[in-house]
Amino acid sequence: MRNAKESTRPPGALARLRTATAPAHQRLNEGLDVFSRPWSLDVHRRWLSLTWGLLAPLERDLAVWAEEDPDALDVVTRARADLALADLRVLGVEDVDLEDLQECPDVPPATTRSAALGVCYVLDGSTLGGQLVARAAVAAGVPVQACTSLTGREGVGRRWRETIAALDALREDDVAAAVRSAIATFTAYERWLSSLSRPGHHDGLDSTS
């Protein structure tokens, strides 16, 4: 039998993050409906352009964190904004057009350890799920060479485990800050990708803020 101390022990960081972000995560998945919607080169191009707009500002903040925190995660191998640009080039997008890509103005700051780990939880998780999205895109005729930003660089599973270990090492107050950062990141994704959502899905977004 578990003793009283064990039964009252608060859940770990991963469990708390999953529970707290579940509503936003579900709304995002249901709105995008990736595995049921028709995929095409045009949809893929829009997907890449929009996700770059999220990744670029988030990864800049993560780079600042990495410079200041000696125990920071490896943000270089986690970076995917550059891969999104490479994917777009594979689809024939010219550099002059890439310069016109827009960044999301509402991403949460990620320059403290707790905030950065909350962001990494979402970004690393999206890379795990991105492998499934990449398969669906390739099945619809998208070149596999244009899906590198979905799958990320080698070592996805290892990086995910590193992120969870770092979250589990946080103090209680810092876990709460990481949770807030993760929720804000999911919300930024949901709003920024709303043009790809099913009609009417994002109408109620403001009520969740």
Number of helices: 10
Mean pLDDT: 87
- How far apart lie the N and C ends? 42 Å
Approximate helicity band: 55-70%
Q: Major β-sheet, in short?
A: none
Round the Cα radius of gyration to an integer and report it.
18 Å
Principal-axis shape equals: globular
The count of β-strands is 0
Low-confidence stretches: 1-9, 201-209
The H-and-E topology, N to C, reads as HHHHHHHHHH
Strand-pairing-aware structural class: mainly alpha
Query: What percent strand?
Result: under 5%
Question: Can you put this structure into words, describing what you see?
Answer:
- By secondary structure, the chain is mainly α.
- It is built from ten helices and no strands.
- It has helices spanning 4-7, 13-32, 41-68, 75-78, 81-90, 95-98, 113-139, 148-151, 156-168, 172-192.
- The longest helix is centred in the first third of the chain and has 28 residues, at 41-68.
Brief digest:
With 209 residues, this protein is an all-alpha fold. It is built from ten helices and no strands. Helix 3 packs antiparallel against helix 5, helix 3 packs antiparallel against helix 7 and helix 7 packs antiparallel against helix 9.
